[in-house]
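Case study B.
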Amino acid sequence: MKIQIKQHLSTPTETELNSINQLILLFPASIKDGKWPNIAHKADLKARFKRDPEANTRFELDLPNKAATHTSVATIDKASNEFELLGLARKLVANQLKTNPSSLSVAMPGLSPKQAAQAAEAILSAVLAANENMPSFKSKQPAKRRLKTLHIFNQKQKLETRTCLATAKGNNLARALTTLPPNELTPGNYRKRVVKLARQHGWKMQFHNMTSLRKQKAGAFVAVAQGSPEADAGIVHLRYIPKKKTSKAACSLVGKGICFDTGGTNLKPAQYMHGMHEDMEGSAVALGTLLALTELKVDFPVDCWLALAQNHIGPKAYKQNDVVTAANGTTIEVMHTDAEGRMVLADTLSFAAKKKPAVIIDYATLTGSCVAALGTTYSGAFTNQEHLFNAIIDAGKNSGERVWPFPIDKDFDSALDSEIADIKQCTISGGPDHILASRFLSRFVDKTPWLHVDLSSGNNKGGLAHIPTAITGFGIRFTVNLLLKEKLLEKVTPID
Ligand SMILES: [Zn+2]
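Model:
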């Protein structure tokens, strides 16, 4: 639902509070030292703050006024980073939206203009995420969200909401797609949904189906998709072209779209197969990022490549010891059929690289070892642009979608030496699989500057930062920050 944002310069007056039902009140941490800014009902707030030692950072009360304004109060530390701020916003907003109100107010008396702007952006982000109904197949549908207006008080400068709105739109799309069950979001149905989106947003679209992929000798992709009873897998290529003519090279987004991962011939046990409809989240994040960049009308072209397939068992499914040839001629010895993500990405990356973009960014729920290394609140970054480590870390910190880089030096390759083919797909067990997967993928990007994001934080129980659902749609805020604030396209250097 579209939310109207109304900005007000000062703190709400007592009269104004009489008509506010839902209020988030943010104070500087200095109230702990007794420095309270002026606000109506200050005595009640102070008393409530004193009564409860837990209230140091967050508490709730209903103001003794006509509206019995339901108020969530929190203090903001100068040292709070974006991730913490977004997490706080998620909790405050969840509390306020419990009664499904149509209007919500935020006041930030005493915060510096910079802090107030940052806090308002965090609250708005949390509201946009929480206010979106995710797909539900319950016969009794959850109540539709009613929030229409967000009042922001104590906002001296005009809040820049464009980026926030665009990334939220992209994230909501990514989460909704990832939530869909696998019998609903088959590769075929996924493609149909993308056709509609392409029409709506003016993207050019091309689809490489299985026949075409066989012709193009994309043997790594075909190896995975051949196990499916329906030949609906394929590679989607979308393109956003800016209105103003440009000679700029494109930014290319690539996503792993395994609509269901059984593990294949090396079948997963139930415990690990459960939730494997989310193995397409990388493609949803690539698509959501394309949507956000389109909304922002960026001045460079954006390519988006989605590798849509399922990893099935069956008589035609690929198996261990198969040797297949990828589109770029690399021969691969299959080691484990559950390492299907890197197989479909291999050919998709080489298709993307052929178009000579300025940079390729790929997203994939790729390895368990990345989760083991980072947990589920950070995602892993892997790049052939080591000089950009700091820019990548900063984009993560400043967007609140945190990533951390890993080394991918050449000598890791020895673990993938094959007796029979150019490279092993992976090792059978052990070793730093997230790094080995990246070494494997690096063979297919040619000399293109490239960043691979292993989405270990694609699902985090209880939500993450401003996102209230376990499915996080992680990566869109990060990428938009990396491209537009960190100016990635100007910083990448060609590889020789
Ligand atoms: Zn797998």
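The CA atoms of residues 463 and 470 lie 5 Å apart. The remaining cases will be described in the next quarterly update.
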